[in-house]
Specification:
Elements: E1 5-11, H1 15-26, E2 32-38, H2 41-50, E3 55-59, H3 67-78, E4 88-92, H4 97-101, E5 107-110, H5 116-159, E6 164-168, E7 175-178, H6 181-186, H7 190-195, H8 209-220, E8 225-232, E9 238-249, E10 255-264, H9 266-329, H10 335-366, E11 372-375, H11 376-386, H12 388-393, E12 397-400, E13 406-409, H13 411-427, E14 436-443, E15 448-455, H14 487-497, E16 501-506, E17 512-519
Parallel strand pairs: 1-2, 1-3, 3-4, 4-5, 12-14
Antiparallel strand pairs: 6-7, 6-10, 8-9, 9-10, 11-13, 14-15, 15-17, 16-17
The structure holds adenosine-5'-diphosphate (ADP).
Modified residues (4-aspartylphosphate): 59
Domain PAC: 225-277
Catalytic activity: ATP + protein L-histidine = ADP + protein N-phospho-L-histidine
Length: 523
């Protein structure tokens, strides 16, 4: 079929007239016409049955039927609604004009006045009308399908939601919609909510009622609302609800609707409550345990301090009398007797060292340490001076990679820590070997300084790396390497109390590298 071809049916018993109209139409440049002709209404109806024409030129008076009867039958044929127009233009002779003009449903052309232009104009109008009607029909159909599809999707979505979606008037006097979740949560029907818009309020817990009324007021004022409240279901069970409402305004800003979402948050509330309760209990327990531990610790430290202190008086007596014995009676005793005296003096000295270390360790736990910027170069100098006698006696070689940075520390504690590490480094070497110690610092993690003390000594098996930091843990006999077993415990406790960490790298027989890590304080 030609795209622009239109079918026009001319129903007229006058042959000349039909030919005239046909000629007018064939001269039309806008459309190409397929022209059907019928000399009677019956033939016209017959042709219409074969296919609906785009336009019908209908003679007002036909031999077998008048135009109105023809149109009525056509309406039945095309199943058109009463009142809807068919693409018909009625051609009426001058004398019937008044009669035809009564009916405004159809266009009329006065036969005697018809010329090519007005006929074509009338047909164009009909074609245009048909086209518009068709488009309108398609659009209507499309909107209908789209709407029903979107409604179906919305219902599918809304009815499967656990949360209630509600739509109400801002003054709460009407509820337009609530999904099925309302029934699941409130245990009341959606219909009851629609018919009695405030019936949901009946379930609100008396404790929360006032607050919910405030929410309704906010809603009426067009504010956003956000509220948690309890409801009591018909079976008496209590549920927690979290409800949020949003005002919907039209383009003029007028408040039209209020939409909201309400969720049952009972499970979360219970879990939250449980967690809060557990946290409280836990905090309470931690506080109790901490204070018990603190008390036990204080007692232990006080005990260690007192014992150490009290031990010193008899120890001093032992030392004093042993020395007096050696001085006053040494000559009267033989070699074995003098050997015994010297053993008493040595043992007393060891006990003295032990007590000193224990006191230092216990003091470290008991005193407050105020941290300040400490220049490691100065501390190293102090420690080297303090250990000078030992270093010389052992002919130790100490290499310091200066300058060293500044750290946040307690000066005396830091000096004690470094002195312990350095004295170990020169102590635990093979017999006859010159101790060689290397000291340097590096930034491992930003903000932290790691100070290394590396020796060429006997090294430590990996399995002992942790335990040597505990009190009285020693790996060697007292005769071979004298000591109390408290030095590294002081190192760890001291560094930890200054907020730092300790560690070592060592392989047995290959020297040890101890490190301490403290906050960088170089500004
Ligand atoms: P002490 O030095 O009084 O024995 P410490 O607590 O300082 O006690 O050290 C515990 C143990 O760790 C030492 O007895 C020794 O066995 C081992 N140790 C410590 N420093 C070194 C080191 N630099 N090289 C090898 N072993 C070490």
């Amino acid at each position: 079929m030609i795209q622009n071809q239109k079918t026009v049916l001319i129903v007229d018993d006058n042959y000349e007239d039909r030919q005239t109209y046909r000629r007018y139409l064939l001269q039309d440049k806008q459309y190409i016409y397929r022209i059907l002709q019928a000399e009677s209404a019956t033939l016209g109806l017959e042709l219409c049955k074969q296919g609906k024409p785009d336009a019908i030129l209908l003679d007002f008076v036909l031999p077998d039927m008048n135009a109105r009867a023809f149109i009525e039958q056509l309406q039945v044929e095309f199943n058109t609604n009463k009142g809807s127009k068919l693409p018909v233009v009625i051609l009426t002779p001058q004398q019937d004009e008044a009669l035809a003009g009564d009916d405004e449903t159809y266009d009329y052309l006065i036969k005697e006045k018809i010329d090519a232009v007005c006929l074509r104009f009338a047909v164009h109008k009909l074609i245009e009308q048909t086209r518009l009607e068709l488009e309108l029909e398609i659009s209507k159909q499309f909107i209908k399908t789209a709407l029903s599809e979107s409604e179906k999707r919305f219902r599918l979505f809304a009815d499967n939601l656990d949360a209630i979606i509600w739509i109400a008037s801002p003054d709460s006097s009407q509820h337009f919609y609530a999904n099925k979740a309302y029934e699941k949560i409130w245990h009341r029907s959606c219909d009851s909510l629609i018919s009695q818009p405030l019936s949901w309020l009946d379930a609100v817990h008396p404790e929360d009622y006032e607050r919910v009324l405030v929410k309704l007021q906010q809603q009426e004022n067009g504010q956003l609302t956000n509220i948690e409240f309890k409801i009591i279901r018909p079976d008496g069970s209590v549920r927690w609800i979290w409800d949020r409402g949003f005002p919907i305004r039209d383009e003029t800003g007028a408040l039209n609707y209020y939409v909201g979402i309400a969720e049952d948050i009972t499970e979360q509330k219970l879990a939250h409550e449980q967690i809060r309760h557990l946290t409280e209990t836990l905090e309470q327990q931690v506080m109790e345990r901490t204070s018990q531990l603190q008390a036990a610790n204080n007692e232990l430290e006080a005990f260690a301090y007192t014992v150490s202190h009290d031990l010193r008086a008899p120890l001093r007596a032992m030392q004093g009398f042993a020395e007096a014995l050696a001085e006053d009676y040494g000559k009267l005793l033989d070699e074995v007797g003098n050997e015994y005296i010297s053993r008493i003096v040595n043992s007393a000295q060891r006990l003295e060292n032990l007590i000193q270390d224990l006191l230092a360790y216990s003091r470290l736990s008991r005193t407050d340490l105020y941290l300040q910027p400490v220049n490691l170069n100065n501390v190293m100098f102090e420690v080297m001076t303090q250990l000078d006698g030992d270093l010389k006696a052992k002919n130790a070689q100490i290499a310091i990679s200066a300058p060293l940075p500044t750290v946040s520390a307690h000066p005396n504690t830091l000096a004690q820590v470094i002195a312990n590490l350095l004295s170990n480094a020169i102590k635990f070497v093979r017999v006859g070997e010159q101790p060689q110690v290397l000291i340097w610092a590096e930034i491992t993690t930003p903000g932290w300084v790691r100070l290394w003390v590396k020796d060429n000594g006997i090294g430590i098996k990996a399995e002992h790396h942790q335990r040597i930091f505990r009190v009285f843990e020693r790996l060697h006999g007292i005769e071979r390497y004298p000591g109390t077993g408290i030095g590294l415990a002081i190192v760890r406790k001291g560094v930890e109390r200054m907020g730092g960490r300790v560690g070592l790298e060592s392989i047995k027989g290959q020297g040890s590298s101890f490190w301490i890590e403290l906050k960088d304080d170089s500004r």
